[in-house]
Amino acid sequence: MSIKRRFEKWFYLDEEEEFQQEQQPVREQQPVQEQQPRRVVSRKPQVAETQQQQQGTVVSLQSIQKSSKVVLFEPRVYAEAQDISEHLKNKRAVVVNLQRIERDQGIRIVDFLSGTVYALGGDIQRIGTDIFLCVPENVEVAGTISDFFER
């Protein structure tokens, strides 16, 4: 079988040719009942319909990128840790600055957020002196910050 023939078969060109040949005028001597062309079903309209259906499910990458947010927090009390975890549950990255809170409460907040991030399958990284980046599973963090911090 030739390549041309395979393409014709693949794109149903044979069926269209048969349909066109059958629509040509028939001899007048034949009875009226036999003049009706045999109906050949082409699959091209079905392919076009499925393409239209698939086009309806296309999602723009720009709309996805616009919906991602990074939330900045500077908690003053331990109770704000729950608000931070709500943002993580809603798949938002959070930067937490603990420089304005007492050290023992800051440690409790980091412990709480570590558990939240672990449960969500995310990641928590220290990016500065008392500054942490918490991300859910849909955000990937590339690179590292050196461990040299002034104390």
Question: In summary, what is this structure?
Answer:
By secondary structure, the protein is α+β, with helices and mostly antiparallel strands.
Question: Would you mind describing this structure in some detail?
Answer:
- The protein has helices spanning 3-10, 13-22, 44-55, 61-67, 81-89, 103-120, and strands at residues 70-73, 93-97, 123-128, 131-135.
- It has 151 residues and is of the alpha+beta class.
- The radius of gyration is 33 Å and the shape is elongated.
- 42% of the residues lie in helices and 13% in strands.
- It starts with a helix and ends in a 16-residue tail after the last strand.
- Helix 5 packs parallel to helix 6 (103-120).
- The longest helix has 18 residues, at 103-120.
- The chain contains six helices and four strands; from the N terminus they run ααααβαβαββ.
- Strands 1-2-4-3 form a four-stranded mixed β-sheet, covered by helices on one side.
- The relative contact order is 0.10.
